[in-house]
Design a protein that fits this description.
By secondary structure, the chain is mainly α. The chain folds into 2 domains: about 80 residues, no CATH class; about 190 residues, Hypothetical protein af1432 (Orthogonal Bundle), CATH 1.10.3210. The protein is built from 16 helices and no strands. α3 crosses α5.
Length: about 280
């Protein structure tokens, strides 16, 4: 790892850590004896997470035909492994605070991130990918490295934004020029530091150039395409003024068919506002 990148990600006194509730959920999911009722007791200790879970189970995100009114029923709809990913999504969104507004509007940042995750998940479902929630998570976190740069290096972040707009180039080029690495590198290193699966870290680390992915160029390509599509549609704003460069190689790796794009966009727009309202709801 680049020594400067390692120092940025390893600032233990300021680096965000995953909440205790997620650790408990992870342990419970990995225990074969855990029941939905057992998991429900853990979740009920976090009212914000409980409310999000119920709303998500009743949303177009899952499209369950009847009303879900209890946490165990919601877990039945979502599944334990998939819920673990959803819990991780909400936990991470809650721990990034204090980013200056002159660098990025956090609501708009998460709206764009949610759009990317939602789009990647819809693409994965279209391809009949078994664990579609990890694509939502990968899309949601694809720009998380930028938040670390904004928080730890605010002056350099302002310089990156200014030079990007002055030269009319993507921020990741300026990030590499000034820092020696880009936000995708930071995001991948952060997820690795949290000891999350390598397959997830790679979705984030390789989303700019998915052809360089070592585990699955196809999976990273879905995040790349979702980033491009949601940026082109103007869904939220992470601080990047320019639409990402479209990779023909990523399109080829994805396995998607052009005929499916209309459905993907239509489904994305149908679910977007509802899913944003669930993940961005204020904690009590």
């Amino acid at each position: 790892m680049n020594p400067k990148l390692e120092r940025l990600v390893s600032k233990s006194d300021r680096m965000p850590t995953l909440p205790t509730v997620y650790s408990k959920i992870q342990e419970a999911v990995e225990d074969p004896d855990t029941s939905f009722d057992d998991m429900g007791k853990i979740i009920l200790n976090d009212q914000g997470l409980s409310a999000r879970l119920l709303r998500l189970a009743n949303s177009a995100f899952y499209g369950y035909p009847s009303e879900v009114s209890t946490i165990p029923d919601a877990l039945t709809v979502i599944g334990l492994q998939q819920f673990k990913n959803m819990a991780l999504s909400t936990c991470i969104m809650d721990i990034f605070t204090g980013i200056p507004d002159d660098l990025v509007n956090m609501e708009q940042f998460w709206r764009k991130s949610i759009a990317c995750g939602l789009c990647a998940r819809i693409m994965a479902l279209e391809l009949r990918e078994a664990n579609s929630e990890r694509f939502f998570l990968g899309g949601l976190l694809h720009k998380i490295g930028r938040l670390i740069i904004y928080r730890e290096e605010p002056e350099k972040a302002m310089e990156i934004i200014s030079l990007s707009r002055k030269r009319e180039v993507h921020q990741h080029h300026i990030e590499t020029e000034i820092l020696g690495f880009n936000h995708a590198d930071v995001g991948g290193a952060l997820l690795s530091g949290w000891k999350l699966p390598d397959s997830l870290s790679e979705l984030v680390a390789a989303h700019i150039k998915p052809v360089l992915a070592k585990i699955s160029a196809r999976d990273a390509s879905l995040i790349h395409l979702a980033d491009f599509l949601t940026e082109a549609l103007g869904m939220g704003f992470t601080g990047e003024r320019y639409i990402p460069t479209f990779s023909e190689a990523a399109w080829g790796h994805s396995g998607l068919d052009e005929s499916s794009l209309f459905y993907i966009v239509e489904e994305l727009q149908r679910q977007y506002e509802e899913v944003c309202s669930i993940f961005l709801q204020k904690k009590n």
